Amino acid sequence: MSALTFTLKKDLLQKLDVSPLTPDQLSDKNISQISATLLWYGKQQLRADDIFLIEGSDTQDLVFEKCSAKVDYIGSGMKTGRIIVNGNAGAFLAFQMQKGELLLNGNAADFTACAMSGGLLQINGNVGDYLGAALVGDRKGMKGGTVIVKGDAGERTGDQMRRGLILIEGNVGSYCGSRMLAGTIGILGNVGEYVGYGMRRGTLILTKRPSLHATIQDCGLHTLPFLNLMFKSFSQLPSKFAQINQNRAHRFAGDIANDGKGEILILE
């Protein structure tokens, strides 16, 4: 069977919600039923075949072609299968994703991996603000899974992150790891101001020392054997982090104004 492919027919003028188009929700539908699936487009609902040219038959292997930054909620609540997105993605990519794989060959907007609890998300581009963060008004962000970003990330990455792994190969904006509860964030590029602000627990792994605020405590240079095990666990991931193997790091604890059990490790 060939992948079930959704190709945009024309440029979008308003936001499009494609949350019903996931492998688990389409698994028991035929092509006629899939074509008739209603999608919110602004304040109206349109059939899927009004917006997309739909080809293929394998509902466990979805492809979005010529995708646009106005296409929101790709992979929302995904529980199985694989989705490949060629082009850019809108807000809430992989929102509440539970299992499966999602590959984006482009850039993503804000709230990517928001409330994600499992699966693998790979972004071969840049991502906006609030990556792996909590919904507005919620107290817990990303709860599990793995996110790999080949480019840059915006502000508030991992805000209130509860569990999981985020690996970013580019630069990251301000307030990275803010109010972080647990989990791991790795960054190869530069990091903006107020990294770890309000952090309670969790680990930030950096390769370049950022400007640290007053309530991040310097704990000195350490040899940390667990780092070897951590980087070994990254060896099969499609990321530059798979090539790192070291256990020497400058450790900072914090935020000491908020319990202070988090840590920022700057690799030597």
Question: Layout of helices and strands, plus pairs?
Answer:
Layout: E1 3-8, E2 16-17, H1 23-26, H2 31-35, E3 38-41, E4 44-47, H3 48-51, E5 52-55, E6 58-67, E7 71-72, E8 82-87, E9 101-105, E10 117-123, E11 143-149, E12 163-168, E13 184-187, E14 203-206, E15 217-223, H4 226-233, E16 248-254, E17 262-267
Parallel strand pairs: 1-6, 2-7, 6-8, 8-9, 9-10, 10-11, 11-12, 12-13, 13-14, 14-17
Antiparallel strand pairs: 1-5, 2-3, 3-4, 15-16, 16-17
Describe the fold and architecture:
The structure is a single chain. The protein has 268 residues and is mainly beta. It has a domain at 110-267. The chain is built from 4 helices and 17 strands. The chain has helices at residues 23-26, 31-35, 48-51, 226-233, and strands spanning 3-8, 16-17, 38-41, 44-47, 52-55, 58-67, 71-72, 82-87, 101-105, 117-123, 143-149, 163-168, 184-187, 203-206, 217-223, 248-254, 262-267. A 13-stranded mixed beta sheet has the order 5-1-6-8-9-10-11-12-13-14-17-16-15. The protein has a 4-stranded mixed beta sheet with strand order 4-3-2-7. The longest helix has 8 residues, at 226-233. It is elongated.
The largest sheet is: 13 strands, mixed
Radius of gyration: 19 Å
Structural class call reads mainly beta
Estimate percent helicity. Answer: under 10%
| Strand runs, count | 17
Mean pLDDT: 96
Count, helices = 4
Global geometry: elongated
- Runs in which pLDDT lies below 50 for 5 or more consecutive residues are none
Strand order of the largest sheet: 5-1-6-8-9-10-11-12-13-14-17-16-15
Instruction: Give the termini distance in whole angstroms.
Output: 49 Å
Note the beta-strand portion: 25-35%
Element string (H = helix, E = strand): EEHHEEHEEEEEEEEEEEHEE
